[in-house]
Design brief:
The structure is a single chain. It is built from one helix and no strands. The protein is rod-shaped and about 170 Å long. The chain is mainly alpha-helical and 123 residues long. The longest helix is centred in the middle third of the chain and has 121 residues.
Length: 123
């Protein structure tokens, strides 16, 4: 009977050992799966980080280009407006002369009309 009792104890101990070892093996496998999954997630995160960094760099370059284009456009606009002001300054005296000459032409037409009337009256 003591042999049966010791065999029962050994069997119970082995059963408990097998359950514990299966549980440990299962946890070890889960741990390995988690490690593999974590490695994949880290790799994916690394790729996304590189992609984001590339996009960010591209956007900074594009922004720099747009700022330069804006600066160039503003300079061209300033240059053209300065050119317009310069031309206006040259044209203004000519316009004033034209207005004065038109006034003189009007006066001359009036004088000519009066002279023609006098000539007609004297005939």
């Amino acid at each position: 009977m003591s042999e049966n009792l010791s065999q029962d104890r050994v069997v119970d101990g082995l059963g408990d050992f097998l359950v514990a070892s299966n549980l440990a093996l299962s946890r070890a496998q889960e741990s390995e799966e988690l490690k593999v999954r974590m490695a994949k997630l880290e790799e994916e995160l690394s790729l996304k980080t590189k992609t984001f960094a590339n996009r960010e760099t591209t956007m900074y370059i594009e922004l720099k280009s747009l700022r330069q284009a804006d600066k160039d456009t503003k300079k061209a606009l300033y240059d053209k407006s300065h050119e317009v002001v310069t031309l206006e300054a040259k044209i203004l005296p000519l316009r004033n002369n034209v207005v004065e000459l038109e006034g003189l032409v009007g006066e001359m037409k009036e004088k000519i009309a009066r002279l023609e009337e006098r000539v007609m009256e004297t005939k």
